[in-house]
Amino acid sequence: MVELKAFDRWSTSGIVVEDIGLKPYIVLDQKIVPKTYGRNVGTKFHKSKNSILERFMNKMLVPGHRAKKHFKSTSKVTGKVSTVYNIMEKTLALIEERTKENPIGVLVKAIENAAPREEIVAIEYGGARYPKSVECSPQRRVDITMRLMTQGAYQKSFNSKKSIQECLAEEIINAYKMSQNSAAISKKLELERQADSAR
Fold it and tell me: What is the end-to-end Cα distance of the chain in Å, rounded?
């Protein structure tokens, strides 16, 4: 049987997800083009059956809102799959060049490292609102992490000489190394610190 490699360059066969909770939600299917064209959109929670690369690319298509304001829109955020496909391929090539490791394995480890375990919700009691810490579900952990990574990279590349590929590669490598220079890691630590004080 011929092994299919992502982007016809990188294998996903030897990559192991160490976090037991995230194992069912980080799918490493062997595909050349990580795109299912919305096959799992209609059914709740079925997005987790898609490849982790495809889900990351979908987050790059629409980074979403940041701090209750509509996030900056540039030529990189057009909703065009071919644009994001090229960005993702160049980003993975940069990661491989800088770490000398399989870039998909680096991305998976970065998501594991940056996935928050707890978050804050507001509960209303007697007319007053109080913060309350709650555990984060595995699927939401993956979604939050990818959103924070893409938003952090887009913000660093906006009005900057650095390209989105460089910023995204730096963000993923920093999360892989557990560095607080990563937007996702610093936000995770802040969330968990707030949740700890709201117990």
Answer: 52
Residue 130: domain span: 58-197
**155 in any annotated domain:** yes
CA distance 22 to 14: 17
Using the predicted structure, report yes or no on whether residue 23 has a pLDDT greater than 70. Answer: yes
- Across 24-141, the runs of DSSP E, i.e. the strands, are 118-125, 128-135
Spatial separation of the C-alpha atoms in residues 185 and 175, rounded to whole Å: 6
CB neighbour class for 29 (10 Å; exposed up to 12, middle 13-18, buried from 19):
middle
Give the Cα separation of 167 and 152 in Å (integer).
Answer: 8
Mean pLDDT in residue range 51-68: 82
HSE on the CB side for 124, CA within 13 Å?
Answer: 1
Does 173 have pLDDT greater than 90? Answer: yes
Q: Is residue 40 part of a domain?
A: no
Cα–Cα distance, 195 to 17 (Å, whole number): 26
